[in-house]
Design brief:
Order of helices and strands: HHHHHHH
Number of helices: 7
Oligomer: single chain
Length: 160
């Protein structure tokens, strides 16, 4: 006879959570990170990073960043970790400094994985169509405000 409502031990709960987290990482996060990485590598190998850098230079300049920093936004759309890794890569290449990398953590965190989150909000939750555009732009707006505030803070600290 089955035991009704058998209470799980702490170890069983932990192992179940670890297993679930592992599969979420492999099934959802890793593919998005790889896609973001592949896109950035494609942009770099084809020279499009330089083109984007010139095109977005004035806009990125508002945040104290070189135009090439726009690739962080591109990769962050797919995965937060991809955005952060792209910023780290730009830092390692000497394209940005530590203060600029700090500013670029903001878009990685606030609008990172935007494509996936938006798809889940719209497709899975079946959000009211009149709010869908707003839900897409709120993280982008938050990112702009966050980056401007971070630039101000770093400037006040004498780091920019």
């Amino acid at each position: 006879m089955d035991q009704p409502n058998k209470k799980k031990s702490v170890i069983e709960v932990f192992m179940g959570g670890a297993k679930k987290g592992f599969y979420i990482g492999i099934d959802q996060i890793l593919p998005a990170m790889i896609l973001g990485y592949v896109i950035v590598q494609f942009l770099q190998l084809t020279g499009l990073v330089d083109v984007l850098g010139k095109l977005f230079g004035p806009l990125m300049g508002l945040f104290g960043l070189p135009g090439e920093a726009v690739v962080v936004f591109v990769s962050a759309f797919f995965a937060k970790a991809a955005g952060a890794a792209t910023a780290a890569n730009l830092y390692m290449q000497g394209i940005i400094n530590a203060a600029q990398a700090t500013i670029l953590i903001i878009p990685s965190m606030l609008m990172g994985t935007l494509v996936g989150h938006y798809a889940r909000i719209v497709l899975v939750a079946d959000t009211n169509p009149k709010y869908r555009t707003l839900l897409l732009f709120v993280p982008i707006f938050d990112t702009i405000i966050g980056m401007l505030l971070m630039r101000l803070i770093l400037s006040l600290m004498g780091l920019m």
